[in-house]
């Protein structure tokens, strides 16, 4: 019977252990999806939110076609209020205790009093997220122009459209992710894990792109004016992306 060097036998086990350790570290370093808060109120708002959002858009659609600038201006505070209510009730603020992974208690260890209430100030986080969304709208305006939006004309329409896109798609992300370089690198490279916030942003972006398709068609319809169909795509895409990101696609990544 041939002799086997015990050192040689131990090497594969050591390599396997190192591989498992590396994989564990990689999984920990990856950005994690943000789940909806477990409260019954958050679960209810999660389902009602897209219905309210689409109902309000459909209610204002005829006015949007007739006067896009005035309608987008007056509807923006309502959309922001809807988004803020959904975000505050359903999503954990960046840095809050609810946003951190739950720590398993050791046998006999008691949860520290007041740990659930610790974390970032929701009002401050909401205000910062709003300010960042307004700044991001300027960047989105430039992106829309690069993708074919009118450059010297329709400036109010384009910027208000950018604001609507930013409030829908980026405000929840700023609220839950903050300004972390690592997390935003994954978001901008479309490699972040899907959740409701990221799914909504992807859906709104794709919807805006698809919404531009009917504009150059020779149908001579009033609703083909800039940027009515873009907004239709943004709202429809946001709702679809949000629903998919919170259900079947939750935690998954592109590729």
UniProtKB/TrEMBL annotation:
Keyword field: Endoplasmic reticulum, GPI-anchor biosynthesis, Membrane, Transmembrane, Transmembrane helix
Topological relation to the membrane, as annotated: Multi-pass membrane protein
Record's subcellular location: Endoplasmic reticulum membrane
Listed transmembrane segments: 78-99, 120-149, 155-176, 197-216, 228-250
Functional pathway: Glycolipid biosynthesis; glycosylphosphatidylinositol-anchor biosynthesis
Gene Ontology cellular component annotations, sorted alphabetically: endoplasmic reticulum membrane
GO biological process annotation, one example: GPI anchor biosynthetic process
Region (Disordered): 1-26
InterPro entries reported for this sequence: GPI_biosynthesis_protein_Pig-F (IPR009580)
Main subcellular localisation: endoplasmic reticulum
Protein name: Uu.00g101050.m01.CDS01
Highest classification ranks of the organism: Eukaryota, Fungi, Dikarya, Ascomycota, Pezizomycotina
